[in-house]
Design a protein that fits this description.
Rossmann fold; six-stranded mixed β-sheet
């Protein structure tokens, strides 16, 4: 059976006998049949437009956008959204980069889109800010109960109303990608993000758990709780609206527009319903993050493993298909990611929360996974010597690896996961 999996800008096709396939899991393409992305967004905005327009009348509005590493379908959202801003006094567009590099071609495309749509909608007064976690001007909002010092972008003081745009999906330590993350870490100082992210080394900080979840049993995530507390300190009593989507391969499956906490809670339920799978444990799994931008580098692609690898039995193997055209990661992550990942695995895993430096949770999580498996094979554009230094097995040809598995055990059942960046796999009974 030929199976195509996303890889960079294209696909990898592998052949596996039907009887050796445990399951093929992809994000469920549940969208509204026969409707374009633009139609779905227009309908959602129309249902709330009167209340929102009245709320922003004569006010400065802060519009918080994910940066170019995310795949929110802005082309469908911007055209019906921008005409709503004509009631406002001024619009400040924030590109919420968090600790990512703000000066990238992908972020420049977002800036160009903003300028084009603002001209079409005849919006006169607006600013565009691409956040820099080290060089921007910051203001203190105090300290959270978990001792995170809240330093946020100074210009967040100006808006009287906020609108966050977010594509919701499971996130391996923040619970979900969601509008809260546009504020924290999206528009906070490096130090704030580092202190908040130290909670990634607490096992309760995991996918599918968030303080805004409608189910009280799924709210105890210390990292996400810390983010919510910090966001509240930043926005104070100003209203926060959100446009939230669930999307896959550029196709919007679901969208809602309203007050942030309400619409986000509903998005969590939809993400759980459509993209959370209970899976019997397997010994062999093939994983693709879903192609660009989800496998642009190893630092970003890793989250696909974190969302899926729990269903692989101890001593099993994973074949990870991640193109990584930009290599291991950006220069700013190298010291705490790559440089630590090439250390002895026992040394990496011995690190604890008190020693945390931003990005060091990545090698720590990698080390725990690699030590638990027999092998983590990586098919990638990353040089073979670098892959081996990072304690992974370089794979020059996915089909050769699969054939080896089947020679070793002709009855082997292989789990195949594509678009893993949008999924959450949990072990079944």
């Amino acid at each position: 059976m030929d199976i195509g999996l996303h890889y960079g800008a294209g696909q990898v096709v592998v052949q596996i006998p039907q009887e050796n396939i445990a399951q093929v899991i992809r994000p469920r393409h549940v969208g509204v049949s026969g409707q374009s992305n633009a139609d779905i967004v227009k309908r959602a905005i129309a249902e709330t437009v009167s209340e929102f327009s009245e709320n922003i009348r004569g006010q400065a509005v802060g519009v918080l956008l994910p940066d170019g590493t995310r795949d929110l379908p802005l082309d469908a959202i911007f055209p019906p959204l921008f005409p709503l801003f004509t009631n406002a006094q001024k619009i400040i567009f924030f590109i919420c980069t968090g600790t990512h590099n703000g000066d990238t071609p992908e972020n420049q495309k977002i800036i160009d889109r903003i300028q084009t749509e603002a001209k079409k909608a005849a919006i006169g007064a607006y600013d565009i800010i691409s956040h820099d976690c080290r060089e921007s001007d910051f203001i203190s909002a105090g300290t959270t109960r978990r001792v995170t010092k809240i330093f946020y972008h100074a210009r967040l003081q100006e808006p009287a109303v906020f609108l966050a745009l977010s594509d919701v999906k499971h996130h391996y330590f923040a619970g979900y990608s969601n509008p809260v993350k546009n504020f924290v870490p999206g528009l906070c100082a490096f130090k704030t993000t580092q202190q908040n992210h130290s909670w990634t080394m607490d096992d309760r900080s995991c996918a599918g758990v968030h303080p805004w979840h409608p189910d009280p049993a799924l709210r105890n995530n210390p990292l996400a709780q810390d983010q919510c507390e910090a966001m509240t300190a930043i926005v104070q009593n100003h209203p926060v609206w959100a446009i939230v989507t669930l999307s896959s391969e550029g196709r919007i499956q679901w969208v809602d527009f309203g007050l942030a906490r309400q619409v986000t809670a509903q998005a969590f339920l939809k993400a759980d319903e459509w993209n959370c799978f209970s899976v019997e444990p397997v010994r062999k799994m093939i994983v693709s993050p879903g192609g660009l931008p989800n496998d642009v580098d190893l630092y970003i692609a890793q989250r696909a493993l974190e969302l899926t690898a729990g269903v692989v039995a101890d001593g099993g193997e994973i074949l990870f298909l991640s193109a990584c055209p930009n290599g291991v990661g950006s220069l700013r992550t190298k010291k705490q990611f790559y440089d630590k990942l090439i250390c002895p695995l026992e040394e990496i895993e011995a690190c604890d929360q008190k020693e945390y430096q931003l990005f060091s949770h990545k090698p720590w999580r990698f080390s725990r996974l690699i030590r638990r498996l027999n092998r983590l094979r990586l098919y990638s554009q990353i040089d073979a010597s670098e892959v081996e230094q990072m304690h992974m097995m370089y794979c020059p040809d996915p089909q050769v690896a699969i054939d080896e598995w089947l020679r070793q055990n002709p009855q082997e059942k292989i789990l195949i996961v594509d678009g893993a960046n949008k999924l959450l796999l949990r072990r079944g009974s």
